[in-house]
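Entry type: protein chain
Record version: 2
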Amino acid sequence: LGSFVLSMVATWFCFRTVASLPWRERLARWIGARGHYNPQSSVHTAAVVLVLTLLSIMVGQLVLSGGLSGLAQNVEVEGVSAGALVFQGVLMVTAAFLGVGLLIRRTPAATFERLGLRWPTPQDIGWGVGVGFLLYLALILMASLWALVVPVEQIAEQNIAAEQIAQAFGTLPLALLLSATAGISEEILFRGALQPVFGLAVTSIFFALVHMQYALTPATIIIFVVALGLGWLRQRHSTTAAIIAHFVYNFVQLAFAILLAGALGG
């Protein structure tokens, strides 16, 4: 029922966005100086519709799979396909490049500039690695604080899907693939393509909601904080720096889990 209500609300919002210029103008005023949403742009209108569609699909898939426990069971039985992961990443990158007008209204060089992509500079690498580790430390801190106020059984239930997904990538090469694919594709789409239009806060909220299938819990707040950190990197430096930070944040978690499991023999 909740999924149906969400889809109806998203449909109504999409219809209003497409059909009503005053509605789009109100949306632009709400975004304000935080982004550069243009109510006259059909591309920006399409972006709003596609964003809400993606969110509805993600929630619908979570519900149809049986919630977090059902998702965890599916991952345990079927595993996670590396090919599917790469394919999903390619779709995200393609959507980002086409969305900003590659070979339509922008040259390849202008497209890379619009997306904030460049060859990594020493500053990109330094800030990316540093922020990636800081976000990982923030994850540990917030998770520790949450563990002080929530029973262990409840935390285990909330994180069951995330743990199954992590176990599916239980080797360093697979962890490297997951970290690189997610870091590149998600940063190019969210921070590269969407953030300049919708602003840091709105993009970060959407990023956290899209990841709710991994942590439909207060851990979503952690993902939101991570999104803010990555978005700040995009604003101050480049999307390339955000990609490096995202990769470090993901890979450090998986690598530690893999090495710890190996040391404990399971």
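Comment: The longest helix spans residues 122-149.
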